[in-house]
């Protein structure tokens, strides 16, 4: 089966209908033990040190795994993706462009997806058939999310992992479905966890995935992963069509639209605080100003760069933040 890489979530139903095995290059990059070599390769090839580690990692991983075709999201995600595609084209990689429209209207979203279908010779009926097949996977991801925040049985990292994997279904939707079902059965047998502090996580999936285990050592647990949850399309059953599904996807559109959903989840999940992860040199870090202004619960902003483990300074800041949230809960009670 022919392979195609993606730089972030795209209308994957179109690619599956076109006969591709879809690979989220972010997952290839960050899950590899040699992930740092991908960053170093990009810097050797001329990427500035003052550029995002994710972009450099995407470049290095794409070349390391010999990916010959890639879809880059040039609007609605990373502002550097357009330049990344230019460099990959010069390396012989066939590139496709997909954009989430700056004007968040169903008409513009529909037009963008229709162009995407045309690029790959796919009809709406074919894409909708794939969307139907994927519904069971998305139901399973939603179940794991509920087992996290409602039943208190799944860990924050499991919540992250099994939702973020739905960007590409680990390259095999059938095997991914089996893994999700097996994991649900395992989680359901557990006794509920009893951490006192309930956290939300906002921002792109972290380079430092040890964050989840670290906070659990301080009587806290992440019960909401904002962007990872959006990758799993939690409201897919309410969408009338593929166009509505991607119109309702919050991450690529304006911040106020994202925050509407975040505020709902703060209330539903009874969150005590938010960890907002930003990536060094990313334009989205500036959104932190609005996030802290608009949300009515404490927000701690942490920044990642190249390391895939928390540094000592960030650990101290997390510990102090969690102590503060615990004191606030004690005082309120």
From TrEMBL:
Family under the similarity heading:
Belongs to the FldB/FldC dehydratase alpha/beta subunit family.
Kindly list the GO molecular function terms attached to this UniProt entry.
hydro-lyase activity; iron-sulfur cluster binding
Write down the InterPro entries for this protein, in alphabetical order. FldB/FldC_alpha/beta
Residue ranges of the TM segments:
none
Gene3D superfamilies to which the protein is assigned, alphabetical: 3.40.50.11900
> Matching Pfam families, A to Z?
HGD-D
Lineage, top-rank taxon, reads Bacteria
Q: What cofactor requirement does the entry state?
A: [4Fe-4S] cluster
Keywords, A to Z, come to:
Iron, Iron-sulfur, Metal-binding
Put simply, this protein is called 2-hydroxyglutaryl-CoA dehydratase, D-component
């Amino acid at each position: 089966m022919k392979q195609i890489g993606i730089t972030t979530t795209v209308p994957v139903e179109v690619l599956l209908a076109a006969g591709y095995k879809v690979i989220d290059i972010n997952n290839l990059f960050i899950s590899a033990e040699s992930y740092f070599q991908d960053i170093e390769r990009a810097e050797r090839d001329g990427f500035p040190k003052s550029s995002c580690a994710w972009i450099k990692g995407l470049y290095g991983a794409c070349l390391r795994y010999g990916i010959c075709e890639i879809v880059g999201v040039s609007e609605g995600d990373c502002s550097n993706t357009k330049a990344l595609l230019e460099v990959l084209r010069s390396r012989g990689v066939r590139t496709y462009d997909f954009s989430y429209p700056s004007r968040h209207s169903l008409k513009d979203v529909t037009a963008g997806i229709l162009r995407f279908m045309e690029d790959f010779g796919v009809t709406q009926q074919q894409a909708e058939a794939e969307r139907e097949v994927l519904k069971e996977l998305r139901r399973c991801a939603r179940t794991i999310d509920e087992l996290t925040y409602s039943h208190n049985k799944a860990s924050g990292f499991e919540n992250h992992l099994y939702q973020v994997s739905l960007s590409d279904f680990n390259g095999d939707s059938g095997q991914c479905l089996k893994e999700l079902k097996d994991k649900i059965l395992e989680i359901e047998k557990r006794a509920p966890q009893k951490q006192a502090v309930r956290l939300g996580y906002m921002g792109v999936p972290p380079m430092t995935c040890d964050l989840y285990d670290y906070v659990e050592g301080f009587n806290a647990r992440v019960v909401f992963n904002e962007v990872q949850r959006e990758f799993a399309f939690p409201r897919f059953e309410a969408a009338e069509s593929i166009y509505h599904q991607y119109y309702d996807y919050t991450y690529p559109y304006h911040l106020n639209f994202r925050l509407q959903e975040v505020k709902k989840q703060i209330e539903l999940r009874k969150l005590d605080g938010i960890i907002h992860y930003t990536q060094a040199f990313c334009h989205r870090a500036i959104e932190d100003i609005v996030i802290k202004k608009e949300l009515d619960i404490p927000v701690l902003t942490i920044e990642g760069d190249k390391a895939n483990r928390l540094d000592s300074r960030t650990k101290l800041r997390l510990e102090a933040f969690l102590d503060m949230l615990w004191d606030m809960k004690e005082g309120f009670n």
